[in-house]
Design brief:
Elements: H1 3-12, E1 19-23, E2 26-27, H2 38-42, E3 60-63, H3 76-82
Parallel strand pairs: 1-3
Antiparallel strand pairs: 1-2
């Protein structure tokens, strides 16, 4: 992922809505979460994920020229696929 991509997502957060970075129409990462999402996120327990409390249908879709947004490396085995 390019540094400029992170800057663009951060700048888009100023609109106060969820930000969904996309490459060629495909949703990716890092997703932008405005500060008003924090209370709901802090209430999550156990294996509950943010996807259960956030409605991405109303998110600002930010089309970027960075295929790196499609890489997801949450787990060590994800990282192993890249090398």
């Amino acid at each position: 992922m390019r540094p400029h991509t992170v800057s663009q997502v951060a700048a888009a957060l100023a609109r106060g809505q969820l930000v969904l970075p996309c490459y060629q129409g495909r949703a990716g990462h890092p997703r932008g979460l405005p500060v008003d999402c924090l209370p709901g996120l802090l209430d999550l327990r156990g294996d509950a994920g943010a996807r259960d409390i956030l409605d991405w249908n109303g998110a600002l879709r930010l089309e970027l020229d960075d295929p790196g947004v499609l890489l997801d490396i949450d787990q060590p085995e994800d990282m192993a696929k890249l090398v």
